[in-house]
Amino acid sequence: MHPDLDKVLITEQEVQKRIRELGEQISCDYAGKEILVVGILKGAAVFLADLVRYISIPVYFDFMAVSSYGAGSASSGVVRILKDLDRPIEGRHVIIVEDIVDTGLTLNYLVQSLQSRNPASLKVCTLLDKPERRVAKVKVDYNGFDIPDQFVVGYGLDYNERYRNFPYIGVLKRSVYT
Ligand SMILES: O=P(O)(O)OC[C@H]1O[C@H](OP(=O)(O)OP(=O)(O)O)[C@H](O)[C@@H]1O
Ligand code: HPA
Ligand SMILES: [Mg+2]
């Protein structure tokens, strides 16, 4: 285990097993259709890359990059689009793919933005959900794991852009970020 971590919260094997289940569930739910997965950069890139390999129906990719900014480190809920989708999504079955839903502010904004573009359907798939921290009410359709209110890194999740490459989810030591 990396020395900056308190513990491994979800092992590589547990992550992979759960992503396989999510991919199979999505393939079953959308059988006979094709889907567009929208990855939210940068955190969701690792999850999306693994998830799509467990999806057996036709799947297209697009990506968005957003930045939330506010006073200090707390998200203000004001979200700015840094990179928008390459193409319109009207009439398509869209799944937003996130690594984590924390306050829900980012996702709340994204759902509103994409819903206004008239997709045939819009769902949300996240690897991690921290329900205790929720500020904005958002509906999550596919969730890998509920996790406690601890700062986690790995498998796409960063602290100051570090640790995204870990194949597992770990709890970062407080001393690293205080
Ligand atoms: O529910 P919220 O409180 O809005 O937090 C969740 C968002 O924060 C993280 O992104 P971040 O802004 O750190 O960008 P990154 O993916 O590039 O790390 C994460 O990937 C989600 O998009
Ligand atoms: O626990 C977290 N870790 C990394 N990035 C995050 N963004 C929201 N919550 C987290
Ligand atoms: Mg981040």
UniProtKB/TrEMBL annotation:
Transmembrane segments: none
UniProt pathway: Purine metabolism; IMP biosynthesis via salvage pathway; IMP from hypoxanthine: step 1/1; Purine metabolism; GMP biosynthesis via salvage pathway; GMP from guanine: step 1/1
A cellular component term, taken from the record's GO annotations: cytosol
Compartments where located: Cytoplasm
Documented EC number(s): 2.4.2.8
Keywords attached to this entry: Cytoplasm, Glycosyltransferase, Magnesium, Metal-binding, Nucleotide-binding, Purine salvage, Transferase
Record's keyword annotation contains Nucleotide-binding: yes
Sample GO molecular function, one term: magnesium ion binding
Catalysis: reaction(s): GMP + diphosphate = guanine + 5-phospho-alpha-D-ribose 1-diphosphate; IMP + diphosphate = hypoxanthine + 5-phospho-alpha-D-ribose 1-diphosphate
InterPro entries attached to this UniProt entry: HGPRT, Hxn_phspho_trans, PRTase-like, PRTase_dom
Official protein name in the record: Hypoxanthine phosphoribosyltransferase
Species classification: Bacteria, Bacillati, Bacillota, Clostridia, Eubacteriales
